[in-house]
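Collaborator request, handled under Task 6.
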Amino acid sequence: MTWTWEYDPSEEHVVHGAPLALVAEVERKADELVRAAAALHLHGSADTGHSPGGGTALVPGGMFEYQVIPRHERVYVMQITGW
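Structure tokens returned to the collaborator:
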């Protein structure tokens, strides 16, 4: 497996009408979060500890909620909020 990010539960559900510029910023920041998670959680799918949780990331035009799951080698983008 390789670290990546994905929308949870689906792109359609999470993006749902968000401006394309905001979605592009979210995806750019999600790429950064993936690189950071891969560097921090070197054991990836073999990890047996607790998941580190997630957080809120601010991007130009809004924010998004995400969850990091080392066992899945995934950063899940769960909600996008624009302003």
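The cover message to the collaborator said: "The mean pLDDT is 92. The beta strands are 4-7, 53-59, 62-69, 74-82. Please let us know whether this matches your experimental observations."
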